[in-house]
Design the sequence.
């Protein structure tokens, strides 16, 4: 039986690539959450008018990987100290946010912020937001890194350093080592 985690940490293409190859992760879906428009499109979210964040929804097996591990990986593979920005992506749609799906995830998210704060030279500003309606992104955004992303110069600049960090710090949690 799968549990779910929802994180926003900038461009969903870049966050999705980090979690795909972890032991216990069954699937990662790019989508939108935290806004006020039903069934938003990529164009609407990118315009910054819907209030949504680009996010990922991870289906995982908690007997193989814990929510705390997913949170630690999240904090170590994006910058949780910059409000509404990841690199060149600027706007509320690129905010750092956690969307807990229950009280246990809420408590663990709060704990993870405290646990990971010493690793950063500035305060972690990641928001913990109530989970609202989840809207999967359009099909061409799913598994982006494995396809189009390997030809996209933005992805080529951003994703490999994230994957290197993942291998260095969490190599034992990867499906292929």
Sequence:
């Amino acid at each position: 039986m799968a549990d779910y985690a929802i994180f926003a940490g900038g461009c969903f293409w870049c966050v999705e690539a980090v979690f795909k190859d972890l032991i216990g992760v069954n699937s990662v879906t790019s989508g939108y959450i935290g806004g006020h428009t039903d069934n938003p499109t990529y164009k609407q979210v990118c315009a910054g008018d819907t209030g949504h964040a680009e996010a990922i929804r991870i289906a995982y097996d908690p007997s193989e990987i814990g929510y705390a591990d997913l949170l630690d990986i999240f904090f170590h593979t994006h910058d949780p100290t910059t409000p509404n920005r990841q690199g060149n992506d600027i706007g509320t749609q690129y905010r750092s946010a956690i969307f807990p799906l229950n009280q246990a995830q809420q408590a663990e998210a709060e704990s993870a912020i405290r646990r990971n704060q010493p690793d950063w030279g500035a305060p972690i500003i990641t928001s913990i937001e109530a989970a609202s309606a989840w809207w999967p992104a359009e099909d061409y955004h799913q598994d982006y890194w494995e396809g189009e992303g390997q030809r996209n110069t933005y992805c080529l600049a951003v994703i490999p350093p994230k994957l290197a960090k993942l291998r260095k710090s969490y190599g034992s949690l990867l499906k292929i080592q």
About this structure: The mean pLDDT is 96. The radius of gyration is 15 Å. The domain at 3-173 is CATH 3.30.1060.10 (Peptide Methionine Sulfoxide Reductase; Chain A).
